[in-house]
Amino acid sequence: MWDVINEVVIMPNFDKYDNGLTRVAQAKGRIKVIKELFDTSQKEAPKATFILNDFNTTAAYEILIDGCLQAGVEIDNIGIQSHMHQGYWGLEKTQDVLERFSRFGIPIQFSEVTMVSGELMPAHYLDLNDYQVENWPSTKAGEKRQAENVVEFYKTLYGHPLVEGITWWDLIDGQWLNAPSGLLREDYSPKPAYNELKKLIKDEWWTETKKLKTDVNGELEFTGTRGDYSLKIKDKEIDFKLEKDQAEISLSLA
User: Fold this and answer.
1) CA 200/CA 33 separation, integer angstroms
2) Which of 7, 18, 75, 120 is most enclosed, with most CB atoms within 10 A?
3) Pairwise CA distance, residues 85 & 131, whole Å
4) Is the same domain home to 193 and 221?
């Protein structure tokens, strides 16, 4: 899976730092740059999944995606960042983002998810990178809030048919922008959010080991989460993958 190019919505006008991408986008146009990068990437790794990724969830990103598709850019997944240092999006905004970006019919990756378990970043900051403090501790109340919000957010995303993946950005506190946005504290002890996610994924969504019996036709039925499986019959074993919308799988142990 390749994040081909990141945060292009602000191009070609981004001039906060002197950077080559702004200059190239100004010279060629941002969509042409995106197409060239996607075409080159797909030529080099034709079996990979290619993502266009951005932090901007406004209509400006939708307009960029529209332009890319009209130009023939083959976007495999739409990447959406969700760094919530200034507070949880909430159910209404999350569902709105899902509804707007699902209109393209392209799988969605929530590529960078963070929620802080300390004091929230002041709302007047427009760029998360501008708020970096030496001491940004995790708090008991913040950890409770983080855990509750994480569960609702993950359940909402998991329940949407086009969401293909969710990536938590910051495993340990203090590793990015010194923020308490990890699932583990700085001493590597798990926070409530870690425990709640583990319960959600391993206990609620994980398919447990099952003993099943075939019918007279050698067929059986089971319900499971998408992913990798192993079927064992006596001394034989075969691995298979359960894909999205896959109703029937034929396996041979011969």
Assistant:
1) 40
2) 75
3) 10
4) no
**Domain of 234, in residue numbers:** 209-254
> In the prediction, which pLDDT does 127 show?
93
pLDDT value for 254: 67
Q: Under DSSP, is residue 120 helix (H, G, I), strand (E, B) or coil?
A: coil
Q: Which of 72, 83, 76 is nearest to 7 (CA)?
A: 83
Helix, coil or strand: residue 84 = strand
Strands 163-168 and 77-84: unpaired
Torsion angles phi and psi, residue 5, rounded to 5: -150, 145
The pLDDT tens digits of the residues spanning 104-118 come to 999 999 999 999 999
| Cβ pair 50, 74 in contact under 8 A | yes
The reply to whether 169 and 80 lie within a common domain is: yes
Shared-domain flag, residues 32 and 134: yes
pTM confidence score: 0.89
Pairing of strands 227-233, 50-54: unpaired
Residues of the chain with pLDDT under 50: none
Please list, in sequence order, all residues whose beta carbon lies within 8 angstroms of the beta carbon of residue 58, skipping any fewer than 6 positions away. Answer: none
Q: Do 185 and 141 belong to one domain?
A: yes
Residues with Cβ within 8 Å of 211's Cβ and at least 6 positions away in sequence, in order, are none
Asked if 170 and 176 touch (Cβ cutoff 8 Å), the reply is yes
Q: Calculate the alpha carbon distances from 82 to 38, 97, 110, 128, 161 in Å.
A: 23, 10, 7, 12, 19
Q: Which of 238, 231, 112 is nearest to 165 (CA)?
A: 112
Other beta carbons within 10 Å of 154: 21
